[in-house]
User: Fold this.
Amino acid sequence: MPEDSEIIEQIVDRYDGDDGMLIPMMQDLQAESGYLPADQLRCLGRHLRLPLSRLYAVATFYSSFRLAPKGAHEVTLCMGTVCYLKGSASISEAITREFQVEPGGTTRDRLFSFQAVNCMGACAVAPVMTVDGKYYNGVSPASALEILYGLTKEHVTADKEEQT
Amino acid sequence: MPTVTIDGCEVKVKRDATILDAARKAGIWIPTLCYHPAVPSEATCRLCMVELDRGEWKQLVTACNYPVRRDIVVYVSSERAKKARRGVMELLLARAPESQELKALAERMGVKGTPYPNVTDSQRNCILCGLCVQVCEQIIGKAAISFAGRGAERTVAAPFRQPSEDCIGCGACAAICPVGTIKVRLHKEQQEVEISPFKSRVKLLVCQECGTPIVSSEVSEQVLRKSQIDWQEFRELLRLCPKCRRSQTSARLRAASVYK
Amino acid sequence: MTELGIKRFSSLVELEGMREKLLNSRSASAKSIHVCTGPGCVAKGSFKLYEIFCAAVEGAGSDVQVQAKCVGCHGFCERGPIVVIEPGGIFYQRVEEPDVAEIFRETVLGGRVVERLLYEDPNTGKKVEKANEIPFYKVQERIALSGNGLLDPTEISDYIAEGGYTALAKVLSPMTPEEVISEVELSGLRGRGGGGFPTGRKWRSCRQAEGSPKYVICNGDEGDPGAFMDRCIMEGNPHSVIEGMLIGAYAIGSEHGYIYVRNEYPLSVERLKNAVAQAKELGLVGETILGSSFSFDIRINRGGGAFVCGESTALMASLEGRPGEPRAKYVHTVESGFRGKPTNLNNVETWANIPHIINRGGKWFAGIGTEKSKGTKVFSLVGNVVNTGLVEVPMGITMRRIIDEIGGGIRDGKRFKAVQTGGPSGGCIPAEHLDARVDFEELTKLGSMMGSGGMIVMDEETCMVRVAKYFTDFLQKESCGKCTPCREGLAQMLYILDRITDGEGQVGDIERLEELGGLLEGTALCALGKTAANPVISTIRYFRDEYDAHILDGRCPAKECRGLFRYEIDPEACNGCGICLKNCPADAITGEKKVPHVINQEKCTLCGTCWEKCPFTAVLKV
Assistant:
């Protein structure tokens, strides 16, 4: 796959081929492909002269990496202490129950990938959920499900707000 | 040379030798699992805990990687050190309840069973000491396996949990495994060697005389790459199994009438 | 940087000249609109406010001297989005999009105050115009956060105009590295990342260590749930961190720096990258800085999502492109750290304090705080407290003052139960110790720790066993799994805690938890593992009765643990509206219209829907 190889070369050059920058490189690669396909990891490993096992170890150690394709939307639920105290566990349970998706997984119809993260640093407005980068503050199990049911209907990426 | 006083017994060691080195020199036994002289100590199993006297307080340290840089006083058989080692062993027994090697070590330590249930099962009977990963990368130079995942989900695996593309079937991982979890299996009919539980299979060179497996073909190539051996001579050497080579040699000698 | 009209400073004089030029160009009458872009305000849409203000500025024409700028977190997140109008410091809170036009018309153009957007002091009922008159800010003393709310973090000229990089200039001439270290030692500054190791002593050991190159690292892997201090500094005043690192590098003798930022903070990465690029362009980072012989380069690295990378050796492994697994620290990182070379690592807040210490002197800094804990500490005050947000207070202040005076007490008139400090491996401190002074030693004595500065307030309805379980679960998931006690011990502890919160606790469970806690503390490899049992041990220490209630009586006193309490309908309060009946997924509620309803306990699945939905709070937990 020449295209893949080109993308990977660009990424490697972006960090001067410094293998200490492996994590940012893999993040850039994931941003390109949505996940980390085995062939691309193999190719990146060859460029950096690193064994595939090292890349695999890194990919499975850090929670931001995905080895399988993600859904059309990205749903992130904060499980930080404050969000937890304000009920994010029951939101997570509700999502798992209604959409048959565990945190870290993707719904079977690839509608959305569901991630539970530690703390998004927006504790003042807990519990917090983001969909494709858009913040929803003070969500409850019911309102979270409502937002996600909205996705089913829309099937287009929600407006990406100008935020992190 | 700094002096290490272990349970009252004095022994001198080189600077940066470990407490374990000192203990072995003094003939004092400290149980270990993840320690192997072939690779640097990572101190993952925490079984070799001993108590270090810091004057104002005493600190538990791992003997296998604590570097001796000045005169120190260490207790191996203090209550606290024994309790720490027992606690670690109990956790390991809960994790790998079927390992005979582990049970034997526990018995030698005087630990009779574990009060804990088996709650972590990411990899059966593996204590995740990492010696296999280290030997494969640092000694064999292949890095066919690595740790995968983290925390209670941690395992040792080949990339993507598929049979490894880099495994040469040398069996060093099985040889170094302290709890007997990694096994080398011969598949005579297919002339293959399998490293379990990593599922990797490698073709074997077999004796051209009797068909006995000699060594994996990949291993022979790795040896050639890493050493100065003449490849023609080496290939010739690998044509026969040791038994057939002996009988051929003796036949040749007999023919040359050396022992008349 | 065209605005500055200079490409690169080649001397200290040029930097000073630029500062004067910048200050002169700013007319005293010019208005400035400061829109908070801290994480809390951004989550409430402050970027949009900024855009609308910008459009308003543009529409006002060139004869009106006004600028809109996004600034770092003001701290009072509870009341966000926050907009401050300078000069005058008029503090508007909970600003929404429709308010922008009014603020612009009335305050910016007309010089009048919009009363309804001001903060109302709950004690006096009076509207307050300026930030420093608000109780939330009164008790605070801001050093590390001093630039937040004031500077545009994307513009180096703002930082320079406010005296930025004067500390660097002072260090390069006429201070020697030894003098810099002595000044930091004199200040008594201790690491703000958790350990509290004296910063000056660390620098000295690193300077004296053999080997080269030497590395300087900034730990921006703020992983504690409930903490966002470092994020707000990186995003609100990135140059203060960079200047601190430059000073540290000069003192230690390092030419290579790294900032390791948590993956969850993309805006921090962006702001830092931008700041480093600007500083490079001006010759403040890179080769022969300000015309001196000192060179220092900074690279920004992102984490991959692993809490353990906040531990220094794990962070270094991650910087080397490996899984973030800690290693033994019997040989210190100042001797052998990143790539096996002498490495000095400090966290964001520590670095941000350095320029102030150099500018105002170590003696000044040492004058703040307690005997062994000097200066101020930033906390993120969150949980069941009225005023959540970011606060910076002098060390030695009591917990009670932080919670009552700054935090405004407990939300919804409930009672205080505990405050959790020190992040997930910290501990819970109960009401009887609220008058304890906040410093490194005191918190440790109470079974908690300073940590990086999370402060989570919990009210009477919080089950402490569940809190312990939450943190244990968190740590168990975040443990790297390298060493036996942390990996296996936490799994065993979680197993027992699960059992207790499910109502199946056994006599002896508490003792077993204590034993495992002791084992972790003594034998785990890194600080994460050694302190991982703190949440359990500290809750057993102060809230043992709650554990006993779960285990012995099958009862959750806070009524949080499902199965350890029941839902019942109060016939006095119920007017038979039928909402609960309609919403019950298990058809467990019966009753005629306008007649008090009843829950069939056998059918009830304890989902809590009726409790959530009842408009008359007639559903009770008993």
In short: Residues 101 and 126 of chain A are 22 Å apart (CA to CA).
